[in-house]
């Protein structure tokens, strides 16, 4: 009977303390017993109270308060120290009113709901794809509001928002080929491949961006060719009898037409645009972004190794090396716009979003594909510089005090913050962190972007983390958040990420669906639309959403490993791509990073990093509720 007296005493003590705290500070525990005056527990108030008693500055030096050393009084740290919790279950858990709202919402996801979301993602893809084929093919894109096709803007050649991407080569159909296989539609895949072979030519008077033509067209042709000809990866035997490597020949033809971009540059960094018929335009500018020039190695490298011609990998790798050798000696960072003739940085901003993103991505993925240790040494050095100079917030994602980790835009030479916005393209980075095995940091950054999505039902192109408001308001149905969600689910199998995918699916259905497809959101607040459905919506956004809910997809069951290109095209990790028919491209060249030091961690294995989260954490929240609530508060959800 003694233990009962102890429990009763503890209950009385807790209720007494709750009343005192509630009356004095409004700090009572979240207990309402059905009344209309819940006693809300405020970690922030307790944190300030204890800090004042200890004589500690309650503001700290968090990224939400400080830029260029100036403290903004209106932003305060909202998280107490939860990193020193006992590993034993506290008796207080018996009185917590079951689980908090985050645990209740995210901790399970029924199989029936998963099947429903899988069908919903498939229907979303086919609604866009079928209407493209009905109303737009053979043009490049579908205008989903007017139900018409869209090609290059021939009347306004300077309209690079359109003309960089659209080359009058049935872009959406080509970009979508391997998505048809992912969805299991071999019949439509064969039909689409034959249409591409019979109707598409690259002998066009079209000036396109080298980067976009590479990732959307060249990458899809190579991926589809591999899937057609190699029954081991990963969909089995999907070839047809009269296929004679036509997609590979088309990829080679396109790559040859892109090669003039690499000529007549004193640095080896390519021009940003070429005319597919005539080469580099006479009025071409001498400036390009780091991602555009440095994200060609995966597609060009695979092509070189498939056809036994080193030219394509050589020019792509030379561009990567040239950019790498221009990094800051002080910080190790690169800028995002460079002059291809002088090697001078035009923009000294260094970040993870537009102009930079896929450069980092392809350093790691090139290593995974080709096994070139130099690629991983560059990635490892870049990743260290990113963490040293861009990362703000508390040291640990899931422990400790302070603001959540965030990667900000900085000056490449000094590491000082240049502005207070992040862009939607940066949402790819948690997925890259998963591939590198840094799952904890991936969890935190992903949670920040998901909180922005929850607030607006979309990701604004730029979001100002200091003002808690969008800087650039449109959302063109980008896939980056979905991609990271999918990869984090593969790494953790945590049902939280299925809920994230469901939220994204339902938001797209509610806010972007129109008469003939899904439209770009012109304004994430009022949900007004633009009449454009970019090809990556079908090739990436729908693909990752479908795969998120399809546990039995051949990609997940295959014994062979694979990666996705930056455009979401499936590429197997194959020993063929580690074999070269030529000598090293850059033997003993200056600027090569030294061999890995013994105390550095080894490169990631060329397999999945899907077992990095301890078993006991897989079915709890990936991020503690107090930190989720903190992030939601910091984007203005509360």
From TrEMBL:
What's its job? Answer: Extracts misfolded glycoproteins, but not glycoproteins undergoing productive folding, from the calnexin cycle. It is directly involved in endoplasmic reticulum-associated degradation (ERAD) and targets misfolded glycoproteins for degradation in an N-glycan-independent manner, probably by forming a complex with SEL1L. It has low mannosidase activity, catalyzing mannose trimming from Man8GlcNAc2 to Man7GlcNAc2.
- Identify the taxonomic lineage of the organism of origin: Eukaryota, Metazoa, Chordata, Craniata, Vertebrata
For this protein, the record's InterPro entries field holds: 6hp_glycosidase-like_sf, EDEM1/2/3, Glyco_hydro_47, Seven-hairpin_glycosidases
Q: Where in the cell is it found?
A: Endoplasmic reticulum membrane
Tell me which residues bind Ca(2+): 566
Which BP terms does GO give this entry?
carbohydrate metabolic process; endoplasmic reticulum mannose trimming; positive regulation of retrograde protein transport, ER to cytosol; response to unfolded protein
Q: Which GO terms describe its molecular function?
A: calcium ion binding; mannosyl-oligosaccharide 1,2-alpha-mannosidase activity
* Protein known as: alpha-1,2-Mannosidase
Q: Does the keyword Membrane apply?
A: yes
Entry keyword set: Calcium, Endoplasmic reticulum, Glycoprotein, Glycosidase, Hydrolase, Membrane, Metal-binding, Signal-anchor, Transmembrane, Transmembrane helix, Unfolded protein response
SUPFAM superfamilies referenced in this protein's UniProt entry, alphabetically: Seven-hairpin glycosidases
Q: What class of enzyme is it?
A: hydrolase
Q: Which organism is it from?
A: Perca fluviatilis
What EC number(s) does this enzyme carry? 3.2.1.-
């Amino acid at each position: 009977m003694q233990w009962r007296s102890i429990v009763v005493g503890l209950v009385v003590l807790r209720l007494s303390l709750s009343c005192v705290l509630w009356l004095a500070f409004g700090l009572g525990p979240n207990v309402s017993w059905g009344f209309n005056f819940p006693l809300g527990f405020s970690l922030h108030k307790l944190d300030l109270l204890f800090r004042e008693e200890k004589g500690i500055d309650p503001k700290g030096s968090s990224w939400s308060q400080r830029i260029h050393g100036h403290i903004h009084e209106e932003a305060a740290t909202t998280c107490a120290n939860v990193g020193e919790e006992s590993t034993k279950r506290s008796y207080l858990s018996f009185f917590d009113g079951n689980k908090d709202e985050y645990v209740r919402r995210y901790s399970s996801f029924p199989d029936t709901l998963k099947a429903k979301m899988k069908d919903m993602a498939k229907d979303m893809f086919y609604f866009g794809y079928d209407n493209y084929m009905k109303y737009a093919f053979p043009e490049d894109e579908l205008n989903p509001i007017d139900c018409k096709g869209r090609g290059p803007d021939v009347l306004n050649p300077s309209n690079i928002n359109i003309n960089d991407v659209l080359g009058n080569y049935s872009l959406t159909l080509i970009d979508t080929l391997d998505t048809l296989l992912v969805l299991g539609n071999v019949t439509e895949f064969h039909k689409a491949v034959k249409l591409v072979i019979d109707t598409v030519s690259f002998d066009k008077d079209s000036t396109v961006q080298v980067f976009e033509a590479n990732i959307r067209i060249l990458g899809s042709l190579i991926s589809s060719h591999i899937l057609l000809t190699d029954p081991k990866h990963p969909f089995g035997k999907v070839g047809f009898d009269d296929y004679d490597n036509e997609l590979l020949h088309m990829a080679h033809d396109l790559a040859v037409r892109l090669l003039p971009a690499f000529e007549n540059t004193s640095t080896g960094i390519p021009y940003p645009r070429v005319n597919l018929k005539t080469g580099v335009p006479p009025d071409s500018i001498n400036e390009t972004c780091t991602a555009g020039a440095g994200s060609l190695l995966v597609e060009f490298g695979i092509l070189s190794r498939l056809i036994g011609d080193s030219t394509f990998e050589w020019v792509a790798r030379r561009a990567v090396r040239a950019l790498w050798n221009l990094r800051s000696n002080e910080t190790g960072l690169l800028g995002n716009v460079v002059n291809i003739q002088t090697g001078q940085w035009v923009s000294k901003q260094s970040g993870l979003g537009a102009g930079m993103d896929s450069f980092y991505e392809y350093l790691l993925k090139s290593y995974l594909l080709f096994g070139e240790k130099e690629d991983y040494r560059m990635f490892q050095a870049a990743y260290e510089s990113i963490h040293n100079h861009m990362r703000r917030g508390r040291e640990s994602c899931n422990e400790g005090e302070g603001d959540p980790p965030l990667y900000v835009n900085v000056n490449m030479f000094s590491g000082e913050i240049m502005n207070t916005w992040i862009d939607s393209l940066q949402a790819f980075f948690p997925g890259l962190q998963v591939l590198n095995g840094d799952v904890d940091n991936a969890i935190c950054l992903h949670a920040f972007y998901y909180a922005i999505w929850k607030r607006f039902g979309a990701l604004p192109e730029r979001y100002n983390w200091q003002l808690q408001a969008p800087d650039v308001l449109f959302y063109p149905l980008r896939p980056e958040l979905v991609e990271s969600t999918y990869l984090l689910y593969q790494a953790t199998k945590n049902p939280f990420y299925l809920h994230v995918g469901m939220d994204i699916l339902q938001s797209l259905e509610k806010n972007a669906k129109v008469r003939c497809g899904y439209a770009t959101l012109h304004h994430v607040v009022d949900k007004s639309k633009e009449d454009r459905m970019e090809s990556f919506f079908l090739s990436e956004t729908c693909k990752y959403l479908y795969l998120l809910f399809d546990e039995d997809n051949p990609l997940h069951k295959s014994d062979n490993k694979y990666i996705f290109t930056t455009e979401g095209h499936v590429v197997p990790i194959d020993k063929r791509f580690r074999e070269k028919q030529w000598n090293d491209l850059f033997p003993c060249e200056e600027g090569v990073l030294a061999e890995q030091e013994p105390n550095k961690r080894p490169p990631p294995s060329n397999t999945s990093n899907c077992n990095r989260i301890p078993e006991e954490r897989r079915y709890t929240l990936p991020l503690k509720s107090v930190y989720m609530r903190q992030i939601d508060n910091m984007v203005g959800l509360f």
